Amino acid sequence: MSDDDFLLLNPGPVPLSESVRTAMDGEMVSHRSAEFEATYERAQDGLDEIFTASTLSGESTGEGTSLVLNGTATMGMEMAVSNLVGPDDEVVALVNGKFGRRFARIADRYAQVKRVEVEWGQSFDLDAVEEAVTDDTALVTVVHNETSTGLLNPVSAIGDITADHDALFVVDGVTSVGGDVFRIDDWGVDVAITDGQKALAAPPGISAIFVTDRAAAVARERNEASDGEGIPFYSDMAWHLRKAESHQTPFTSAVPLFRALAVAVEEIHEEGMPNRIERHRRQAKAFQEGFAALGLDPFPETEGPTVRSNTLTAMSLPESIRGDDSTAFFDAVKERNVSISGGQAHLGGDIFRVSNMGNLTPDQIARGVRTVGEALVDVGVDCDPEAGVTAVRDVLGE
């Protein structure tokens, strides 16, 4: 890739390999055909490995069923909550960013929600979590890698608290599964959610959830007891589980997206999850060190049990170009044919975010840091873009 080519560094969608792109160009087949069932099986087998063996040793940490969904990860979040709790059940929702808030908003539609909420980017007080989760709690939701702030939340500790009260534990792994460590059994996770367009490096519009046997039993029992009343029609988990046994979905499947996902997860298998995790961590450090060499501060400064993300990097903009003044900076980045993301909601104009999800090369990461540095210089910030590139090369050994 030359410096003239478009470089996508947003935290989703992420760049696709040529094989993933071309997988979508095949002749159309029926979603009830043997050909499609074989595609679903390939995708499901790969997802099973990714969900359960996202460890540095490659060991498996759980058993259950992967479901491929015709929709983005928000569909998976809603499926998990709506199938496992009812109007009288209590859900404890942990919120320290946009997607934790989304989980809470989804749960509001289906159950009684108790929020444990801190400022976006701040760490959860585990004592407050322990106080909120009781024997009356049916389900706990949390985002593992909060995409809006670039933080990894302490899922293991939260899972221990949840298990002490025998509540179900649903985790948004949208920007961690496929790129970082994720341990189903060790963390007590009952349902995990991920998205094609993130660390799996597949197209947007398709996602997946992993359902443990315990969660599947709850979904089936609720469905049977109510004869489906109160259970979403399109996102009926029991129905999806039943159809997945024959490698199908209940409704018409997005055949080209399933093909692309099947190739994407096979590419992850070829790389090997331990290698993939190490690569994402190394590249995240390169971004962090590169931006630090430009004189930028991370967002946020981590404290408590949270740590910085290994799949995306959030940085604070200099005070002199925040708010409305940030527009010129983002325009200068765009003029160089590079796409990065700003902050969401009240963080707009205060931070920027870049992703190293997917299959970025060292040259692309160096280009991303150089582009940010050059854009900063364009808007009057004193920095040395080449110092950022040198820091990247030092980390990556290039």
From TrEMBL:
Gene Ontology MF annotations: transaminase activity
Ranges for domain Aminotransferase class V: 28-344
Residue ranges that the Swiss-Prot or TrEMBL entry lists as coiled coil: none
Entry keyword Phosphoprotein: no
Record's signal peptide: none
Entry cofactors: pyridoxal 5'-phosphate
Pfam families, per the entry: Aminotran_5
UniProtKB keywords: Aminotransferase, Pyridoxal phosphate, Transferase
InterPro entries: Aminotrans_V_dom (IPR000192), PyrdxlP-dep_Trfase (IPR015424), PyrdxlP-dep_Trfase_major (IPR015421), PyrdxlP-dep_Trfase_small (IPR015422), SP_NH2Trfase/AEP_transaminase (IPR024169)
Family to which the UniProt record says this protein belongs: Belongs to the class-V pyridoxal-phosphate-dependent aminotransferase family.
Protein name: Pyridoxal-phosphate-dependent aminotransferase family protein
